[in-house]
Amino acid sequence: MDNLEVKIREAELADLELIMAFISQKAEFDGVPNLLKATADKLQQTLFVESPLVRVLLAEVAGTAVGFAIFYASYSSLLAQPCLWLDDLFVQSQFRRFGVGTALLKSLAQIAESTNCGRIEWTVNTGNTPGIAFYQKQGARILENIRVCRIDGSAMAQLANK
């Protein structure tokens, strides 16, 4: 198989179970299935509302979805511009290396350009060597001097109630 003909489209409510399946597959790929708290109901309440804060792109090959990207708007005070945050990018293993991930990122870049975004950002697991190589091939710079900070669960509740 060479590069496949990939169609990218925005997800719709009818894709809810498919999105849930992709999120589950990504959690398995990342080695954190125990952290998966998403449900179809929770996704519906956040993705398919009148003004959703998050958008989902689906990658299809021959009419079958084989990957997805979840993203949302962010902002850079340094640039004084909106940005896009790519929360998840996942392509089923048998469709990797055939242009599916590139097609998803290209669509995301087109959205960023059309909305005057200054950049697209995301995280990648340091152990995901193939993913890092893929992102670098697409022109991404891996910023080694920045760390993800996270407050969640009981720490968030404790901080909120100080």
Task: Record the SSE blueprint.
Blueprint: E1 6-10, H1 16-30, H2 40-47, E2 54-61, E3 64-76, E4 81-91, H3 100-114, E5 120-121, H4 129-137, H5 153-160
Average of pLDDT: 95
Q: CATH homologous superfamily name?
A: Gcn5-related N-acetyltransferase (GNAT)
CATH architecture: 3-Layer(aba) Sandwich
**Global shape:** globular
Q: Please give the alpha-carbon distance between the first and last residues.
A: 57 Å
Radius of gyration computed on alpha carbons: 17 Å
Description of the structure:
The protein is of the alpha+beta class and 162 residues long. It has one domain (6-160): Aminopeptidase (3-Layer(aba) Sandwich), CATH 3.40.630. Helices cover 34% and strands 24% of the residues. The chain has helices spanning 16-30, 40-47, 100-114, 129-137, 153-160; strands spanning 6-10, 54-61, 64-76, 81-91, 120-121. It has a 5-stranded mixed beta sheet, sandwiched between helices. The protein is globular and about 55 Å long.
Please give a quick description of this structure.
The protein has one domain (6-160): Aminopeptidase.
Feature tags:
five-stranded mixed beta sheet; Aminopeptidase; 162 residues
